[in-house]
Specification:
Elements lengths: L1 E6 L2 E6 L6 H11 L5 E5 H17 L5 E5 L24 H7 L13 H13 L2
Parallel strand pairs: 3-4
Antiparallel strand pairs: 1-2
Length: 128
């Protein structure tokens, strides 16, 4: 689904997608434009479908802002555990996986702290 709107004298495009496609879509857009992009992906979907897209993004030097939302379960399909779930014997740390894949600019933010989240996003885009 594509929504194109007019706000503050700028065109906005929102692609609504699911099942881990946000990182791949953002990477494709970054390869053909200089748009500043934010992607969202859940923790379970990150392990299910986001890893290959993140690897592709790193290898091809794309730079969208990727926000991985960690709720430590599979909220979309029944709350099954995934590799970083707290009920795993030795849960993986998402930040360690992301670092191992070559991401250099990373910050962990408490999603409950809205001010920190907004400021982090603003700072991230100043670097671009």
């Amino acid at each position: 689904m594509l929504y194109v709107g007019w706000q503050s004298a700028h065109y906005l495009q929102d692609y609504l997608s699911c099942m881990g496609s946000s990182i791949g879509i953002a990477h494709g857009i970054k390869k053909v434009s200089d748009q500043k992009l934010i992607t969202f992906i859940g923790d379970s979907t990150f392990f299910h479908a986001g890893l290959p897209a993140l690897i592709n993004t790193v290898i091809n030097k794309s730079n969208p802002l990727i926000i991985i939302m960690n709720n430590q379960t599979t909220g979309m399909t029944g709350h099954q555990p995934h590799p970083a779930s707290i009920n795993q014997e030795e849960p993986l740390k998402i930040e360690e996986v992301v670092k191992a894949l070559g991401v250099k600019n990373m910050k962990i933010v408490d999603q409950g702290n809205q001010e920190e989240m907004v400021n982090t996003i603003k700072e991230f885009f100043k670097q671009r």
